[in-house]
C-alpha cells in the first residue's frame, strides 16, 4: 500500500524540549542547575507524568524528598510550557507543506495529560492534525505496542499506509513492528528528503 498518513512524535520532533530552558532562569550556577535536572526535577521523574501519574502526587512526593527546592519543584508544575522554547527548526514549514499537499497528519506523544491541555491550545499547528494520542491521558507510553495500536484503531488507519516519525530509535522500531514505515528524526531537512522519496511532498 502507498504511504499516505504521517504520524509525528511531538517533543524533539515538532517542538524543542529541555527542562533547562525553564530552570536556567532561576538557577544561575551551572553546576547547581545540572544537579537539579539530574537529581531533582529530572526527565525520568517527569516521565512518570507522561505515563499518567497525577502531577499533584508527584510534586508533593518530590518536595518531601528535596524540601530545599520546594519552590522550584512547584514551578515545574505551574510553568511547564517554559521547558518548550519553540518549534524545531524548519518543522513548521515542513508541516505546512504537508498540509498544502492534503497529507493526513496525526501524532503519538509521550506527554503528561495536564501539561498537554495547557500546551496544545497555544499551538495552532495542531489544528491541522486529524487526531493526537497523548500518553498521559491513555496511561500508555511509547514504545508500548498498545499505544500505536490505539492510534491505528481510533483514527481508522492501516499500518502500511502510515509513516511514524520519532527521535528515539526504540519508538520507531516499535511502530515498524506493527507494519508502519518509520523514520528516526534528526532534522527537518533529512525528514523532508524522506517524505519526498515516498511521494508525500
From TrEMBL:
For this UniProt record, the keywords arranged alphabetically read as follows: Hydrolase
| GO MF entry, a single one | hydrolase activity
**Which residues, if any, are the signal sequence?**
none
* The keyword Calcium is assigned to this record: no
Q: Please verify whether the record's keywords include S-adenosyl-L-methionine.
A: no
Name of this chain's protein: Hydrolase
Organism, scientific name: Sphingorhabdus lutea
Amino acid at each position: 500500500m502507498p504511504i499516505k498518513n504521517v504520524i509525528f512524535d511531538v517533543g524533539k520532533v515538532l517542538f524543542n524540549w529541555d527542562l533547562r530552558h525553564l530552570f536556567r532562569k532561576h538557577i544561575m550556577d551551572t553546576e547547581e542547575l545540572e544537579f537539579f535536572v539530574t537529581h531533582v526535577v529530572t526527565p525520568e521523574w517527569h516521565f512518570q507524568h507522561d505515563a499518567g501519574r497525577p502531577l499533584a502526587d508527584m510534586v508533593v512526593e518530590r518536595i518531601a524528598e528535596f524540601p530545599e527546592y520546594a519552590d522550584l519543584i512547584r514551578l515545574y508544575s505551574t510553568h511547564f510550557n517554559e521547558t518548550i522554547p519553540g518549534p524545531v527548526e524548519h518543522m513548521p514549514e515542513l508541516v505546512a507543506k504537508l498540509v498544502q499537499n492534503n497529507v493526513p497528519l496525526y501524532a503519538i506523544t509521550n506527554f503528561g495529560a495536564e501539561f498537554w491541555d495547557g500546551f496544545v491550545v497555544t499551538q495552532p499547528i495542531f489544528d491541522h492534525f486529524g487526531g493526537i494520542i497523548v500518553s498521559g491521558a491513555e496511561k500508555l507510553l511509547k514504545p508500548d505496542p498498545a499505544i500505536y495500536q490505539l492510534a491505528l484503531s481510533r483514527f481508522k488507519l492501516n499500518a502500511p499506509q502510515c509513516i511514524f516519525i520519532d527521535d528515539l530509535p526504540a519508538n520507531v522500531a516499535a511502530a515498524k513492528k506493527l507494519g508502519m514505515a518509520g523514520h528516526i528524526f534528526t532534522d527537518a531537512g533529512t525528514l523532508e528528503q524522506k517524505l519526498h522519496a515516498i511521494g508525500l511532498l
